[in-house]
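Obj: model holo form, ligand = magnesium ion.
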Amino acid sequence: MVSPPQVNRDATRSTAHDPLQRELRFLKGVGPRRAAELERAGLRTADDLLHRFPIRFEDRSQLCRSTDLRPGETAAVCGEVVSAGLHRTRRRGFTLFEMLLRDDAGMCRVVWMNQPFLQDVFSPGQRVALYGKVEWRDPGGLRLTNPQYELIGDAEGDDDDGVHTGRIVPVYERIGSLTTKQLRRLVHDVLQRLPPALEDPLPAALRRRHALPERREALWAAHFPAAETSLELLNAFRSPAQTRLILEELFLFQLGLGLRRRAHAQGRKRWTIRVDDAIRRSALAVLPFRLTPGQKTALRAIVDDMRQAQPMNRLLQGDVGCGKTIVALLAALVVMENGLQVAFMAPTELLAEQHYLSIERLLAPSRFRVTSLTGSVGAKARRETVTAIETGAADLVVGTHALVQREVRFRALGLAIIDEQHRFGVLQRATLRDKGRQPDVLVMTATPIPRTLALTSYGDLDVSVIRDLPPGRRPVKTKLEPESHRDAVYAFVRRRLQEGRQAYVVYPLVEESAKTDLKAATTMAQTLEALFRDHTVGLLHGRMKPDERGAVMRRFAAGEVHLLVSTTVIEVGVDVPNATVMVIEHAERFGLAQLHQLRGRVGRGPHQSYCRLLYQGPLSQMARTRLKAVAGSTNGFDIAEQDLLLRGPGEMLGTRQSGVPTLQVADLIRDRDLMETAQREAFAALRDATVAASVLARLDDTWTERFGLAGVG
Ligand code: ADP
Ligand code: MG
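Output (holo structure tokens):
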């Protein structure tokens, strides 16, 4: 099924003699202690070290003479310490550390505020490099204020080769006891040992197109840039050398995604899906409403995919409540009409249960048989279901990940639908697919994925986005309420219940204190029961048995329970259109995306819906920003972008599960633009057999490992 070129482990270059793979602990000046410090920071090899960019650069090529300093400038000065000492001032607790510096031209005064420890850093006779703001003060005159400093002529040797001065110098973040200066020296040593030519994974044509230097040159210039390099570009990580190394990393990552995509596209289904008028009529028969334009477009793309000879591999993305389920179900109908089976996977039992109930209802008039399989069904029922799946007696199975366990064998699985799986990554999806026999795969997520992440975590999928909501929806009105407004919030809830609506009260369940929180949720339910005597209060939490939970949920969906107190188990997918109020307790403890997901449980019907975020002060800066972001927007895409900025991609999706790679030089936020270029270039490279062959032949073990390239060729 796989055609050449392949990533062949035996054929890849051995890393044993690669100077870049030399371990740092064997370098001069790196003892066991430093090696351990470096290792803790994730740096084991020379290659690791060279791919840790300086945090910024200072231009010490244009050293300013002490006599030429001008107020308002930022200047680099280099010279010898004449005197240095701490001065107490009349303001209590305020110290000034003052230094007199001499260079070839004369002397200048340097002042640091409230840094008394500098006493132990400077002594007369030392050579230092300073970089900072020039000010004019009256009295006192011209001075450098709070500059960055670096000792250059201390015990560690001189600067004969001009590593630390006389050029644009890199400034590194300290690693353990290693100072920026020691790191600079180390990097310089490593660079000097580089062989004259390095393998380059970037195709030459790509390099030319983007005017990028070769690998060796780039490694040098990313640390020790030529004098004419723009400091502004360097500090924005966009010098040609930096761009090249970032692009290289993203290119390799995208190459992996591209290979996976290609392997998938080369698969061939063992059946053909047909769509005729009879099938269209049967689909229309179950449809309880008119599809929105966004739903129609998505469905068309899905059906088009399914009619192809190669399996579908598509992501259906859309904000909570946009109506992804019905789109998936219509696709499922097409597949079942073609005599094939459908698996519908949900991340939680509760959600699987919900889907099962609503799908069963929708399909009741059809001839298709729906069944469910979760981890919690009894052994006997389970055996029966497994048999029904195997014999084809069941057409559609709704379930949790129990569905992909080994003993579950489908007679003819045509379509696998994976709902709300934003926690699934590229690799996990691949594993899952391998269990099937080339089924079509539709992944649905309600977490709007910022474009950058869509290119990484879901880069191996085709994407459809539903941007509109079903007609008549009004945005949920959201308000922040301090704890002290609790009574008013309850009064508000009561009025909605009296109008015949239903409400959720959600309690956070933090893992470490699961027990106490559970108690809080239980106590809360009791309190609310006493407060809302005319209404029925239900309680839902993760520790309940699934059938108890299902029973509560069914009663809520049927309108028998009016007020549902719950932990976050209701986070995804729950759909009760008559519920119009969502009270979130301890809203400050929830993440941004989570709050948005929770709020998505209301606003699903024709009635105006409300969300009340009850918080306990004082709020941290971060919590305040989060809460304001949720209150200020109902647009999931905006919120996701905010979330990405606040938390970073790793946190947001959970790096490991999300398939977001561990990147060395690239930054998913800073380098969004380059990610797009990388994808374009990598996919283009793969389309050209000659280019692909030469790129893949040059990949070494480290790359294949880091980007999961092994075995996907
Ligand atoms: P999500 O995309 O969050 O999974 P659902 O599929 O659960 O959203 O749909 C949310 C609600 O909107 C459901 O009650 C569903 O029946 C309803 N719905 C979906 N599409 C439409 C539509 N085109 N017109 C009216 N209601 C719709
Ligand atoms: Mg859903």
